[in-house]
Amino acid sequence: MGRTDRASRVLAASPATVYGALLDREALEAWLPPGGMRGRIERWDPRPGGGFRMTLTYLDPAAGRGKTSAAEDVVDIGFVELAPPERVVQQAVFEADDPAYAGTMTMTWQLAAAGEDRTEVTVTATGVPPGIDPAAHEAGLASSLANLASYVEDAGRRG
């Protein structure tokens, strides 16, 4: 069944703003890749039953241990549930020859109001493939949440 990993963070933005960043192609390319990576979305269909394909590239190929190649992770993400502005459920499948990365990981992004224009975001990954190092995954989830916070909080200051 795989394991479950979880991370959360309170962001200085409304649930509607955060939800919008979960379903905007350019926003996802900006905030979803964890530190040390950049992302590129190759296919985009933001509806239940749709999804996207993202290539994550290590900025320092020597430091990377990609799942698809030495320097890249390619992942197909399907949108299972879109419940504005509280929840987005995705299923992620990595393109990899190594069976340690096989299977479908479910990512649930839960948003809860945490005061005026504040949102607690909790991301829960279930069915995490055993090849994904727990400490690296925890750091990656925390990094993506920090990137999301910067993205939505900077948008609030600009807009």
How does this structure look, described?
It is a single chain. It contains 3 helices and 7 strands. Strands 1-7-6-5-4-3-2 form a 7-stranded antiparallel beta sheet, covered by helices on one side. β2 and β3 form a beta hairpin. The chain is α+β, with helices and mostly antiparallel strands and 159 residues long. It has helices at residues 15-22, 25-31, 134-158; strands at 3-11, 37-45, 51-58, 72-83, 87-94, 105-113, 119-128. The radius of gyration is 15 Å and the shape is globular.
Key features of this structure:
159 residues; alpha+beta; Alpha-D-Glucose-1,6-Bisphosphate, Chain A, domain 4; 7-stranded antiparallel sheet; 3 helices; ASHA1/2-like_C; START-like_dom_sf
Structure summary:
Helices cover 25% and strands 41% of the residues. By secondary structure, it is an alpha+beta fold.
Our count of helices gives 3
Provide the residue-averaged pLDDT: 93
Q: Terminal Cα separation, in Å?
A: 43 Å
CA-based shape: globular
Largest sheet: 7 strands, antiparallel
Q: Which fold name fills CATH's third level, the topology?
A: Alpha-D-Glucose-1,6-Bisphosphate, Chain A, domain 4
InterPro entries: ASHA1/2-like_C (IPR013538), START-like_dom_sf (IPR023393)
Domain Activator of Hsp90 ATPase homologue 1/2-like C-terminal: 13-153
Family: Belongs to the AHA1 family.
What order do the helices and strands come in, and which of them pair?
Layout: E1 3-11, H1 15-22, H2 25-31, E2 37-45, E3 51-58, E4 72-83, E5 87-94, E6 105-113, E7 119-128, H3 134-158
Antiparallel strand pairs: 1-7, 2-3, 3-4, 4-5, 5-6, 6-7
